[in-house]
Write a structure and sequence with these properties.
111 residues; alpha+beta; 4 strands
């Protein structure tokens, strides 16, 4: 890939990361408003510095009742732009190692 093409690729990835971050915040606001969750964190490539063309949105949510998980996930997918993917991880059900990593490296966007 030439220097100019590489530069364009970096710019488009940067814009895509901004769009995904805005969408993560929109999802967080939706969860707060409609499900009264306690906290929402962004984890994964959006915060690790390794964002790439196949990155998705990884949210860890605390306080979402288990019986409402599928309903919330379905509604969040309705908010997403075409082509976006979302992983919604209930904090309470996560492995201890993921909980620790979320608290250590995740970006708290609500709570």
């Amino acid at each position: 890939m030439g220097k100019k093409a590489d530069q364009l690729s970096k710019e488009s990835l940067s814009k895509r990361k901004e769009r995904y971050t805005r969408m993560a915040r929109k999802c967080s606001s939706f969860l707060k408003k409609n499900y009264n969750v306690k906290r929402v964190y962004i984890i994964g490539s959006l915060v690790s510095g390794f964002f790439h063309d196949r990155s998705d949105i990884d949210l860890v949510v605390e306080g979402l009742p288990a019986e409402l998980y599928i309903k919330a996930l379905t509604e969040l997918y309705d908010l997403l732009s075409p082509g976006m993917e979302l992983n919604l991880i209930p904090f309470e059900d996560a492995f201890d190692s993921l909980k620790e990593k979320t608290l250590r490296e995740g970006q708290l966007i609500y709570g």
